[in-house]
Amino acid sequence: MHRDHDIAIVGGGAAGTLAAIHLLRRAAPGLRIAMYEPSLHPGEGVAYSTRRPEHLLNVPAGKMSALPDEPGDFLAWLATRREYAGAGDQSSRYLPRRDYAAYLAQRLEEARTGSAATFELHHHRITALHRRADGLRLEWSGGSATAGRVLLATGNAPRPLPARGASALGAPRLLEAWDSEGLAAIAPDARVCIAGTGLSMVDAVLTLAACGHRGPVHLLSRHGLLPLAHAPDSPVDTGLEVDALLALDLRARLRVLRQRVAEAAAGGRPWQAVLERLRPRVQALWRSLDAADQRRFLRHVVRYWDIHRHRIAPEADAVLQDLVRSGRLQLHRARLDLVTSGTRCVHIGARDRHGAVVALDVEHVINATGVEMRVQAMRNPLLEQLLGDGLAVPGAHGIGLATDMDGRMRDASDMARDDLRVVGSLRIGEAWESLAVPELRQQAQAVAEAWTGVAVAA
Ligand SMILES: Cc1cc2nc3c(=O)[nH]c(=O)nc-3n(C[C@H](O)[C@H](O)[C@H](O)COP(=O)(O)OP(=O)(O)OC[C@H]3O[C@@H](n4cnc5c(N)ncnc54)[C@H](O)[C@@H]3O)c2cc1C
Question: Which InterPro entries does the protein's record reference (predicted)?
Fold first, then answer.
């Protein structure tokens, strides 16, 4: 039976690229691996495609290795780079994200040249996937191919601005937070409103600051919470018994954690140590909540969780805090409702939690509302087709896709087959913590081991 590929990876961001590296390092002679990624640069995806030096990793370099079994691999790569020569130990530093893209691209190239397998990179956006007698058939505009196994790594989907009138606004009035060139072109005195106050907002603020912007910047979000900073040296509260938490319900867990954080504060220790202790066990913590508690978490806790869990580099925090102190950044706790284009500006209408109108006139609105978790709202034709044909179903609580614990995709009859697996953020419903490199590399290694039968890379 002819198949074009033994394994096809759909999506070549960090997750797909990590999977390719792990597969190539283990593959037996003759295995044919392909990756489908529309952009020209594998490994970049949404997070690492930025060329701007002020966009930093939010994880210290020492924790960003592509290889779970070689935790120092990113540091070893940095040591070979001229720009880091003589710069000392980088393990606790928050480096530019563009360096991480260069690292992944080089490790992919090395894995390809050193592999017994063949590797093809196709710059097509896959629009459909069908199960046929001869394997899994991938389709794109103008072509198709068959594969024995498919790994779905389509990753993050930016959210459209959630406001009436947004679809009638275009650049440069409405800019996406990841459009660095658009942001860099904003006039220095222009009034700006950034919708959303998460990590994409931080990127946008850092770019405006780096480009000499000095006009007022309004930050708009429903909860008005800003990301918090990492503590120096990432301490870990080793005294916290995570196993004991697993047996508790959500409310009791939160009580224990609040108490622990208060004790740390009273003892002059950083609260971040408590979160660092939880970090490797977040998947177990999520899976051990019942469905009702998971729902409560998503409804009432997630905003607070996000700012504590997804922390920013201390140097990024310093810039942010300076701008808040100087009054240049003004935080509005309000829900965005309406955007309309005037002759010279954009009118923004929002409502605070008491129903009072917050009205702003600005030259630019920046959409920093982050990534979409609900698979039906991701506007990805491939995912829509998979759902429509019953090859996939939404994950728990409608977020991501339903998978088993090893990432096998569940179909409409709840069957999880081994030839169609998922890595990365689409596993959020089942795993919750399934976004950052520590999880992505683990998932990539696990699928490579399962599909090549080789547990230790050659
Ligand atoms: C701004 C930002 C900063 C971050 N910083 C860090 C950090 O410092 N450390 C960390 O550990 N994590 C960080 N993260 C988490 C980050 O999401 C992951 O590290 C990683 O980038 C996720 O990669 P991914 O491949 O799953 O998704 P993506 O980066 O979204 O890549 C998915 C790829 O799939 C492709 N694709 C989509 N649909 C199709 C299709 N139908 N056919 C073919 N290709 C398709 C896209 O073109 C894209 O290249 C950050 C995330 C963001 C958004």
Answer: FAD/NAD-bd_sf (IPR036188), HpyO/CreE_NAD-binding (IPR038732), L-asp_N-monooxygenase_NS-form (IPR052189)
